[in-house]
Amino acid sequence: MDFEAYVELKEPLQENEMREVDLDCGSQGKKKVLLVKQKGVLSALGSKCTHFGAPLATGVLGEGIVRCPWHGACFNISTDVCPVCLIYLGDIEDFPGIDSLPCYQVDEVGNNKLRIKASKTDIMAETRIKTMASRNPKIENTFVILGGGPAGASCAEVLRQEGFQGRIVLVCKEKQLPYDRTMLSKTLDSKIESIQLRTQDFYDNHQIETLLGTEVTEVDFEKKQVKLSTAVTLPYTKLVIATGC
Ligand SMILES: Cc1cc2nc3c(=O)[nH]c(=O)nc-3n(C[C@H](O)[C@H](O)[C@H](O)COP(=O)(O)OP(=O)(O)OC[C@H]3O[C@@H](n4cnc5c(N)ncnc54)[C@H](O)[C@@H]3O)c2cc1C
Ligand code: FES
Considering only CA atoms, which residue is closest to atom 1 of ligand 2? Predict the structure, then answer.
């Protein structure tokens, strides 16, 4: 951790209180940090929702979670790591956001004085991507995801986040990478690049194959394979049907 700064609180943080504070990051300016106290434990996280940047301090604090006031994305605020689902501080737990919050080490070092430690990269970041497993070519299991809307795209990502190391193929008849379809009726002049959920580099880096402009024309559940509009037959171990409505 190569960044350290101090925050003086005017009043101590109360149990079940969230408060946004300014952190002086020197030449990089000021950074807002969300402080949360629950069960006597203090946490420090990014202050803005990773979806559209709502101030989380005005959201709803539940047990171990904060829920965004705008569209309800939910983030873990507990410093205990769940041994079953491996959810860490700041991890996203509910959509529509897809990224987690950056989080920092916080210690009480005096009367109403806190020390915040982080890496310089993390302290300026607005979002954090959960750790993703790498593809292991020795694992032959293949997930075929039929449909490249937000459901299909989230499924592909979450598989890697949950440690799946086999092959993932996302097949979509649209030519575009998965995008936020809800924006189509909000910003009518949206450019596709600005509403894409992830870049092609993201999918390449996490070895998620994207077959765009490709329709699944037939599913053979007996043989566990799908036929594509490109005349290719694709075998699967598991099939996810996320074709929307
Ligand atoms: C203009 C508009 C505005 C919206 N605004 C809002 C909003 O404000 N709030 C809100 O909550 N929701 C909104 N929605 C709804 C929201 O976009 C959907 O709920 C969401 O996109 C559903 O995601 P999905 O991944 O399940 O399905 P979809 O987004 O429908 O994605 C399914 C994908 O599967 C592909 N597909 C289908 N069949 C095949 C096949 N045989 N082979 C290959 N690919 C296939 C489709 O081409 C599509 O890309 C809006 C929708 C639209 C169209
Ligand atoms: S801004 Fe938080 S869920 Fe949309």
Answer: 52
Q: Structural domains in the chain?
A: 3-124 (2.102.10.10), 142-241 (3.50.50.60)
- Could you give the CA distance from residue 57 to residue 49 in angstroms, rounded to a whole number? 10
- What is the SS3 string spanning 50-79? CCCCCEHHHCEEECCEEECCCCCCEEECCC
Cα 195 to averaged position of ligand 1 atoms, centre (Å)? 13
Dihedral Cα 241, 242, 243, 245, nearest 10 deg: 110
Protein residue with least CA distance to atom 34, ligand 1: 147
Atom of ligand 2 nearest to the CA of 97: 3
Please tell me whether residue 201 adopts helix, strand or coil conformation.
Answer: helix
Q: What is the mean pLDDT of the chain?
A: 94
Tell which one of 68, 100, 126, 186 to mutate to probe ligand 2, the residue whose CB is within 8 A of the most ligand atoms.
68
Task: Tell me the pLDDT tens digit for each residue of 5-55.
Answer: 999 999 999 999 999 999 988 888 889 999 999 999 999 999 999 999 999
List pLDDT tens digits, range 65-97. 999 999 999 999 988 777 777 788 999 999 999
Residue 14, pLDDT score:
96
Measured CA to CA, the distance from residue 35 to residue 187 in angstroms comes to 33
Q: Please, are residues 194 and 171 in contact by the beta-carbon 8 Å criterion?
A: no
- What is the arithmetic mean of pLDDT over 205-210? 98
Question: Bridge partners of 23?
Answer: 31
pLDDT for position 61: 97
